């Protein structure tokens, strides 16, 4: 191969790498997926992510980006070694981001790349993301926009930390409440013990992936399952598992297709008395109570007792000492985040029009709490 061809190949591979960063920043996942070969693999071992093929890369990327409040990525050229119709290389990354659950950070990383020449030009055959440095100190800045003040520097609870970063628990140090920080192991254990004493089945799991697997064991095939509106269920993939497959009789997709004017009574019955409710909560107290907030109240009857079985998936940041703190968490933390989401999706703010407090479960085996060691959701 002549020198001019190699120069042209290098220019095209550099353009490919630049296009990846641009598509990521513009949140154009279809364009990003098209930069890969049909059988390509995108791996991120530090977060246990592996996407195989363009469709998984697209949909998986959309799930990841749905968690962002903001995300900024800079890429810096690394090596390129060309060997005929294949090539290898490295791209150096610097990224800052904040998630909707409040966690934020800065990292430096490397993409270890394999490229392949195709009739459409050079494409990624494999990208493996290796983190070399991560700083989970809360970011003081914000993304300009209508919700920027919610994340401004100096506001209590304006940004969380990544789970497992070793930070001191806010309530234990006497600091102002940061409702996005995962509770300590001791507090999680207290909550689990109190929930069990109050009649709930309570399990402590490592992360959302473990809860996603556990859900499949807890719900029998063919059950009618109502999934409450929940960022926890969406971000974990649990909602997708229940609503998109044919393993269960998913109620939410069904009612969304029904006419609310002529079929309201049937919708109400379907949502109030499912075989199984899967949802989350706004707070769990260390005294063993669950606090659920709602704008419409549509999912509260199933939680209160209408569902034959109820399963609540709860992130570690939702554990609070007592009921008064739980109510403050609803107003000061969960409501602003949900309002920002509702404003973006529906064009109107959310509201806490109804509150449900479950102090105990009188029916043994009906209510299960899957409490996670990591933060997820609002």
Please give a structural write-up.
The chain is α/β, with parallel strands linked by helices and 378 residues long. Helix content is 34%, strand content 30%. It contains twelve helices and 16 strands. The chain has helices at 3-25, 29-33, 54-65, 170-173, 185-197, 208-218, 231-236, 238-244, 251-256, 264-272, 300-306, 323-346, and strands at 36-44, 49-52, 68-83, 86-99, 104-118, 121-135, 201-205, 224-227, 249-250, 276-279, 283-285, 290-294, 309-314, 319-320, 354-358, 367-372. The strands form three sheets. It has a six-stranded mixed sheet. A hairpin with a 2-residue loop joins strand 3 (68-83) and strand 4. The protein starts with a helix and ends in a 6-residue tail after the last strand.
Question: What secondary-structure arrangement, pairings included, does this model have?
Answer:
Elements: H1 3-25, H2 29-33, E1 36-44, E2 49-52, H3 54-65, E3 68-83, E4 86-99, E5 104-118, E6 121-135, H4 170-173, H5 185-197, E7 201-205, H6 208-218, E8 224-227, H7 231-236, H8 238-244, E9 249-250, H9 251-256, H10 264-272, E10 276-279, E11 283-285, E12 290-294, H11 300-306, E13 309-314, E14 319-320, H12 323-346, E15 354-358, E16 367-372
Parallel strand pairs: 1-6, 7-16, 8-9, 8-10, 10-13, 11-14, 13-16
Antiparallel strand pairs: 1-2, 3-4, 4-5, 5-6, 11-12, 12-15
Low-pLDDT stretches are 145-176
Strand order of the largest sheet: 2-1-6-5-4-3
Q: In one word, what is the shape?
A: elongated
Q: Give the averaged pLDDT, no decimals.
A: 86
- Helix content, binned percent: 25-40%
Q: What is the percentage of strand-forming residues?
A: 25-35%
- Number of DSSP E strands: 16
Global Rg: 23 Å
Q: Structural class of the secondary elements?
A: alpha/beta
- Helices and strands, in order, run as HHEEHEEEEHHEHEHHEHHEEEHEEHEE
């Amino acid at each position: 191969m002549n020198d001019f061809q190699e120069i042209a190949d290098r220019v095209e591979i550099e353009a490919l790498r630049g296009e990846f960063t641009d598509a990521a920043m513009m949140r154009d996942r279809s364009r990003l997926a098209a930069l890969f070969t049909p059988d390509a693999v995108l791996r991120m071992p530090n977060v246990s992510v592996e996407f195989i093929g363009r469709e998984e890369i697209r949909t998986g990327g959309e799930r990841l980006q749905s968690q962002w409040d903001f995300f900024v990525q800079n890429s810096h050229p690394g090596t390129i070694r060309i060997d005929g119709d294949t090539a290898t290389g490295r791209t150096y990354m610097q990224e800052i981001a904040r998630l909707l659950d409040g966690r934020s950070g800065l990292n430096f990383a490397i993409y270890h790349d394999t490229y392949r020449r195709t009739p459409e030009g050079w494409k990624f055959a494999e990208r493996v993301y290796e983190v070399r440095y991560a700083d989970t100190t809360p970011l003081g800045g914000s993304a300009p926009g209508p919700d920027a003040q919610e994340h401004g520097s100096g506001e209590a609870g304006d940004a969380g930390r990544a789970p497992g970063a070793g930070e001191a628990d806010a309530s234990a140090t006497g600091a102002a409440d940061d409702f996005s920080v995962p509770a300590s192991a001791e507090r999680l254990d207290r909550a689990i013990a109190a929930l069990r004493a109050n009649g709930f089945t309570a399990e402590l799991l490592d992360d959302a992936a473990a809860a996603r697997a556990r859900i499949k064991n807890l719900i029998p095939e063919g059950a009618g399952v109502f999934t409450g509106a929940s960022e926890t269920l969406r971000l974990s993939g649990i909602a997708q598992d229940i609503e998109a497959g044919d393993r269960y009789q998913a109620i939410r997709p069904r009612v969304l297709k029904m006419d609310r004017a002529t079929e309201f009574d049937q919708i109400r019955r379907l949502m109030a008395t499912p075989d199984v409710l899967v949802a989350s909560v706004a707070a769990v107290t260390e005294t063993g109570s669950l606090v659920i907030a709602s704008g419409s109240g549509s999912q509260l009857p199933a939680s209160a007792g209408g569902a034959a079985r109820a399963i609540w998936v709860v992130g570690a940041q939702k554990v609070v000492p007592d009921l008064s703190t739980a109510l403050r968490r609803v107003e000061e933390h969960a409501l602003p985040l949900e309002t920002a989401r509702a404003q973006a999706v529906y064009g109107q703010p959310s509201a806490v029009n109804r509150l449900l407090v479950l102090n105990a479960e009188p029916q043994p085996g009906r209510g299960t709490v899957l409490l996670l060691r990591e933060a997820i959701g609002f």
